[in-house]
Hints:
By secondary structure, the chain is mostly helical. It has ten helices and no strands.
Amino acid sequence: MFYLLFSVVCSVLVSVLLKLAARRQLGVAQMVTWNYLVAAGLTAGVLQPPLEALQSSHAPWPALLVLAVVLPSLFLVLGRTVAVAGIVRTDVAQRLSLLLSLLAAFVFFGQTATALKLLGLGLGLVAMLGISLRPRGPAVAGEAGSWRWLLGVWVGFALVDVLLKQVALSGTPSMAALLACFSIAFVLMLGLQLWRHFSGRSRLRARNVGAGALLGLLNGGNILFYVHAHQAMPDSPATVFAGMNIGVVVLGALVGVLAFGEPTTRWNRAGLVLAVVAIGFIAWG
């Protein structure tokens, strides 16, 4: 259970770091670049995934290449969403992306639609509407249109999940696939940052390297602890899944409201409660 708790904490701290990055004028794009170098190193060094599967003729390289582009792009969207919509609403939108993943599983992957899963899907859609409503007042004066960023997080994480399902169906070990994606994403982002540096658009700064390394430790730690949680509780995958998603929603809400004073409406709070219920129904359905 401690592995699950550590995974939840790492996930929420990623949002906290992105929130602080905007306040301290750190370059999120540069942070994301170095994050993937550290995350790839952690994945390779700790989990040591078998890379032979990537040399197979059945290796899903098209999906892996798309993931290598989508993952850093989604990280940039996540950073902007945390800045304009707050940690509370961003973390809920991120975790409710499982609704679209579930819908894709019904339509494209032949998963059985049980009554509890359908109920969770319906409640989750209502929850998503609730959290998308923008609080009013001077504290959120510059946040008009934040729902578009929340929608980007919602759809983006669902797309990542669908692509990972395609990779899994190919028989490629998930950690080997993630290592390949992290490595390619780092190369692509590094190339982009070098071009921006030498063209004078955005200079590389050491402070972004340090912040990016910390982001990579949290991002990689989230994955490593989540994998270890499943290994520690092999007979309770639903418990791990629900604990992870509900834990991030609840802890993210507490941190956002208590540490950063993020305003929420009654609809946001109702959506938060519905999100927890919906995740529970989907996990145990």
